[in-house]
Design goal:
InterPro entries: FecR, FecR_C, Ferrdict_sens_TM. This is Ferric-dicitrate binding protein FerR, regulates iron transport through sigma-19. By secondary structure, the protein is an alpha+beta fold. Helix content is about 25%, strand content about 35%. About 30% of the residues are buried.
Length: about 325
């Protein structure tokens, strides 16, 4: 068994309640400051949440490490979640998918599921050590035999750092598109009628489910597919803007206010509403890096010259600024 890293030992000792009260408090503070430690802990926590309570701490610690390496040999097997492999050849994928239901047949074929709510982002590790960061209001499903067939079904938005394996292609299924990863970094966006696949590096093959046509994309190419007209076009894209959300940055690029509300509400997990058509048509441009809700509200009030009032716990009304 490979020797555990320092971070892994910390996570296991915390989960098996081997830390003193003071040590636990320090560890919890470290979780908020160390992103690498937090990712490792999320990985182990997912295993621990499904672990049989009857097993003792030593057995749990031993199997937690084995599970993280995807070689668990106990009879109590569960969905594999493994730590990242240091020297794996990876590809980065962002999936921004339509909000619809899975087809009945697809839904039945997936045994593992992770979901996020509005305002929430979550890191998940797949059994092949691929990293997934789910954006708000998103979902990923995959089978327990994932290492044999690397296929996932996603809706919402997700960033993938995919471990390269030329023997087993990584396939992302969505409602309208299938994307086969051939060693790459890309973004998929299926919000509203225009669906897009934007290739940052490497190569992807995109299958249009309705027509069964497929095509390859080269770096810096973006495919736009309109589900109403079936039109397909190519254009360049800005990777920094496309991937900003995973770094807790909200970018509004010359959007009219009513179109920006979807992104704002989903990012912050609240509901901003506008009843004034003049405000709806105002254009907003800005980048909001790790701003809390209060700071964001002050920024928007200044940028758009509006007033934002809290209506209830989760709802805000945007009105004209009547100050001189």
């Amino acid at each position: 068994m490979t020797e555990m890293t320092k971070n892994e030992r910390k996570c296991v000792r915390y989960l098996t309640q081997e830390l003193s009260t003071a040590a636990k408090a320090i560890f919890e503070i470290e979780l908020t400051l160390d992103h690498e430690l937090k990712a490792t802990f999320d990985n182990y926590k997912l295993i621990w949440d499904n672990y049989p309570e009857s097993l003792n701490a030593y057995e749990a610690q031993k199997d937690l490490q084995l599970e993280s390496q995807n070689i668990l040999r106990t009879q109590r097997s569960k969905p594999n979640v493994i730590r990242r492999v240091a020297y794996s050849l990876a590809a980065c994928v962002v999936l921004c998918l339509a909000y619809g239901y899975f087809s009945h047949s697809d839904e039945l074929s997936y045994t593992n599921q992770v979901t996020t709510s509005k305002g929430q982002r979550q890191t998940v590790y797949l059994p092949d050590s691929s990293l997934v960061i789910l954006n708000a209001s998103s979902e990923i499903q995959y089978n327990s035999d994932f290492n044999i067939k690397r296929q996932v079904y996603v809706k919402g938005e997700a960033y993938f750092d995919v471990t390269h394996n030329k023997e087993i292609p990584f396939v992302v299924h969505t409602e309208d598109l299938n994307v086969t990863v051939l060693g790459t970094a890309f973004n998929v966006n299926t919000v509203l009628d225009n669906k897009s696949v934007s290739l940052e590096r490497g190569k992807v093959n995109v299958l249009l489910k309705k027509s069964q046509n497929s095509l390859n994309l080269l770096p810096n190419e973006e495919l736009i597919y309109n589900t109403k007209t079936s039109d397909v076009t190519k254009r360049n894209f800005n990777a920094t803007k496309t991937l900003a959300w995973k770094d807790n940055m909200l970018i509004l690029d010359n959007l009219i206010f009513k179109d920006a509300l979807y992104k704002i509400n989903n990012f912050y997990g609240v509901s901003f509403k506008i009843t004034d058509e003049e405000i709806n048509q105002k254009r907003i441009t800005g980048a909001f890096k790790e701003q809390d809700l209060e700071a964001f509200i002050h920024s928007i009030e200044f940028i758009a010259d509006v007033e934002i009032k809290k209506v209830n716990h989760n709802e805000y009304l945007i009105t004209q600024n009547h100050e001189d």
